[in-house]
Amino acid sequence: MSTSSTVLDSSFDDVTRTDASLRRFLHGLPGVDQVGAEARAAGLGTRSIKTSAKAYALDLAIRMVDLTTLEGQDTPGKVRALASKAMRPDPADPTCPQVAAVCVYPDMVPVARETLGDSGVHIAAVATAFPSGRAAMDIKLADTKDAVDAGAHEIDMVIDRGAFLAGHYLQVFEEIAQVREACRREKGESAHLKVIFETGELQTYDNVRRASWLAMMAGAHFIKTSTGKVQPAATLPVTLVMLEAVRDFREQTGTMIGVKPAGGIRTSKDAIKYLVMVNEVAGPDWLDPDWFRFGASTLLNDLLMQRTKMTTGRYSGPDYFTLD
User: Is 156 a catalytic residue?
Assistant: First the structure.
């Protein structure tokens, strides 16, 4: 992931000084036209791409996957198997690219690190009392620091949705900023921070836009839709609003922020719809694993099946690849 991601922008110092000034700024953002956003997302979802472009899109989507296991029944063996698959998604085809990252609970970071080594596949760890975000701040920071110290390259934190919905924007801002600080290592590059909104609980597209700007101003490197534990999770209209936010943020500050839809993206067809949207809304600069990711567990298998069909002309069933 690029190191040119966001830094806390001093141009927002006045805006983020008090709850009242932050509220004025966030509520002064242009409102989202719900009907228009949903119609545009639906229209972009009908775009078709040519065969050569589809082959490229499948490989790009594989490279953008954060291969995820976040279950109470996760075992070291399961994480090792997932990490091995992340490095070689299709062992029969050495031309198949590896995924961007493996996403696990903090206690599984050492297991993933042992398996992945210097493969280039990143380790992402969820933190800050995932998935609820309901814990004391010192616990959230310790959760983050433990994962970073264990070797996580990326931290996926969850915001306190209760605080956000109650209008306590400065509290949420300060939590994000503090977690960003906890991502710093004593030596070497800091872990990158992805901020999860749980958009299924934010109720409105206006809130999604406000949460996007709040997180970006606080220092997020990525903004992420969902934990995957609440429905609805990622949707095209929500992702469109977030892509508009990162586009507008770069226009205002010159800083690029990544976007990660997560939860419910299961097929190659779905993934390609998102890639079309990224290109059309944010622009081609975001068509890169440094700036766009899919949080998924089952998506990779469908991408591999479609890739095999394009390469060999034969469609392999889901049992051809390891089940996650």
Answer: yes
Q: Rounded mean pLDDT of the chain?
A: 92
260 is catalytic: yes
Residue that wins the pLDDT comparison between 2 and 161? 161
Q: What is the pTM of this model?
A: 0.92
Q: Which of 66, 90, 143, 156 is catalytic?
A: 156
Domains of the chain, CATH where assigned: 19-312 (3.20.20.70)
What is the distance between the terminal CA atoms of the chain, rounded to a whole angstrom? 25
CA pair distance 10, 8, nearest whole angstrom? 6
Catalytic residue among 224, 270, 273, 302: 224
The more confidently predicted of residues 207 and 311 is 207
- For helices 51-63 and 268-277, give the axis angle rounded to 10 degrees: 90
Q: Does 145 qualify as catalytic in the annotation?
A: no
Query: Which parts of the chain are beta strand (E)?
Result: 65-68, 101-104, 122-127, 154-158, 192-196, 222-224, 258-260, 294-296
Distance of alpha carbon 60 from alpha carbon 79, whole angstroms: 24
Q: Give the active site residue among 140, 194, 260, 273.
A: 260
**φ, ψ dihedrals at 123, nearest 5°:** -110, 120
- d(CA 128, CA 224) in angstroms, rounded, equals 14
Q: What are the beta bridge partners of residue 260?
A: 224
Helix axis angle for 299-312 and 51-63, nearest 10°, is 140
The pLDDT, as a whole number, for residue 282 is 97
- Establish whether the linkage from the previous residue to 232 is cis, with ω within 30° of 0: yes
User: What is the pLDDT, as a whole number, of residue 49?
Assistant: 81
Q: What is the pLDDT of residue 318?
A: 56
If you write DSSP's letter for every residue of 239-299 in order, what string do you get? HHHHHHHHHHHHHHHS---EEE-BSS--SHHHHHHHHHHIIIII-GGG-STTTB-EEESSH
